[in-house]
Amino acid sequence: MRRLPEIIFGSGILLILIVGCGMVQKETFVGSTTPDKPPSLTANLTVSVSGNGFVEILDVSDNAVVSGSSFVWAVLKNTEITLNAVPSPSISSFKEWVGVSPTDNSPLTLNIVNDLSVQAVFE
Fold this sequence. Notes:
Shape: elongated
Helix content: under 10%
CATH architecture of the domain at 42-122: Sandwich
Largest sheet: 4 strands, mixed
CATH class of the domain at 42-122: Mainly Beta
Number of helices: 0
CATH topology of the domain at 42-122: Immunoglobulin-like
Number of strands: 10
Order of helices and strands: EEEEEEEEEE
């Protein structure tokens, strides 16, 4: 049985008590006050050279070729690229890659899924 509002008289003041006539909804916030950062679709490939030579990079997905001795290249994650270490003619030879495995293959094909730093070492 539902209770009706009670009316209380006293000292000339009319006081109405309402019992059970509604609910107060409390909002609960769980989590961060900032929105989550969406995952990045790109990864940075950092390439450097030690010694006399340079690196060619072939992006298999769009046949782009980049070459140089020091650069940062943003690529879409899950992109297959090929690194080719090119020594200076009659001055040096390719020794190894630092930062990837296997270390002694040139050209070397990689699938870029995260940021990666690679160094070509020439001797």
